[in-house]
Amino acid sequence: MGCGDACPIFPGKRYEEWVLEDPAGLGIEAVRPVRDEIERRIRALLAELQVPVRQ
Q: Domain tally for the chain?
């Protein structure tokens, strides 16, 4: 789920590539699972980076 633009590459930086379903044009019931998956991945990334998260 991306815009298809190429991102600049910076040596020594970490990049995440998340393959997500594109919910464009779909109803709210199709968007919610994508939203939830993004939240799950962000929380996992923050935990991996040891960033405190507010509940």
A: 1
Q: Are 31 and 23 in contact (CB under 8 A)?
A: yes
Classify residue 19: in a domain, yes or no.
Answer: no
Tell me the residue range of the domain where 41 lies.
27-55
Q: Establish if 34 belongs to a structural domain.
A: yes
pTM: predicted TM-score of the whole model, two decimal places:
0.74
pLDDT in tens, 24-44: 999 999 999 999 999 999 999
Q: Is 25 left (phi over 0), alpha (psi -120 to 50) or beta?
A: left
Integer Cα distance of 46 and 38 in angstroms: 12
